[in-house]
Design a protein that fits this description.
By secondary structure, this protein is an alpha+beta fold. Helices cover 21% and strands 24% of the residues. It is built from six helices and 14 strands. It has a six-stranded mixed beta sheet. The protein has a six-stranded mixed beta sheet with strand order 5-6-7-8-12-9. A hairpin with a 4-residue loop joins strand 6 and strand 7. Helix 3 packs parallel to helix 5.
């Protein structure tokens, strides 16, 4: 089973460029998780008939949003966080709006696992959304994952808008305490690992300095001045099934590139 994740920075744009079709044609994912789709179902027709589409669009037009395209029919789909969490999701509202209305979380239930597709709010260049991330979003996400994990193992993927350690960005010294590399954001990733989730790429490639996002400025992608802020985390019980965890820098069309995991479930176990 091949699962891919990609922050596409606009579904309409990536379809117009042909980049999404190229990815699907060349890699043939069983499941594809997309972030920052910036569209609603009535605004674009992806035209991939082999996939069922599950959308979680933001209420605000042209903003945020997630989608899952799957060849395997999920047993269930949930958009947004569950309502029975100890930390109230109402806490997520801030001066920028309500992340609950921005289409940032999807959970698809399959036979062997839950697949959670995440687009984490960034903290803004002036760190004005850092309080939301550190005190509310990250703890709520972790609590949500642990609640789901009581039922089945977890695969969680997407854009976490944070580099975890110095190997995960090209210029760590210049970016200490900058958005995406503050102590609080890095701690959010550490808390996921401490709770038993495994960073699949880093577990398989402990010394590789590779990136998933590049700024549009100063030819950062051409110079490979990037950040690894997109991840696949899995429950410990699932990790023995991981055959491969990869990053695909060669696929263009967004300021992020796709990432993937491949699991060794046979056909009878997949759904």
């Amino acid at each position: 089973m091949k699962i891919y994740s990609w922050n596409i920075n606009g579904l309409r744009a990536v379809i117009k460029k042909g980049a999404l079709r190229e990815l699907i044609k060349k890699t043939e994912p069983d499941i594809l998780c997309l972030q920052e789709i910036k569209a609603k179902p009535d605004q674009v027709k992806p035209d991939f008939p082999e996939y069922e589409e599950f959308w979680n669009s933001a209420e605000r037009p042209g903003y945020s949003g997630t989608a899952i395209f799957s060849k395997i029919t999920p047993q269930s789909i949930q958009n947004g966080f569950a309502t029975n969490l100890e930390i109230s999701c109402d806490s997520l509202k801030d001066q920028y709006g309500d992340p609950n209305q921005e289409g940032r979380v999807q959970a698809a239930e399959f036979k062997k696992f839950f697949l959670v597709n995440v687009y984490t709010p960034n903290t803004k260049p002036d760190l004005s959304r850092l309080n939301l991330r550190a005190k509310y979003w990250d703890p709520i996400l972790l609590q949500y994952l642990k609640e789901l994990e009581k039922q089945k193992p977890i695969i969680v993927c997407g854009d976490f808008n944070a580099a975890h350690t110095e190997i995960d960005l090209a210029r760590p010294k210049q970016n200490h305490n900058a958005a995406g590399f503050t102590r609080e954001e890095r701690q959010g990733i550490s808390n996921l690992l401490a709770a038993g989730f495994i960073d699949t790429f880093r577990a398989q490639h402990p010394d590789q300095q590779r990136y998933t996002w590049w700024s549009h400025y100063a030819k950062a992608r051409e110079r490979n001045i990037g950040w690894r802020i997109d991840y696949f985390f899995v429950s410990k019980d699932l990790y023995p099934h991981i055959k491969k965890a990869e990053i695909y820098e060669e696929f263009l069309g967004s300021d992020h590139c796709p990432i993937s995991i491949e699991l060794d479930f046979d056909n009878s176990e997949q759904n």
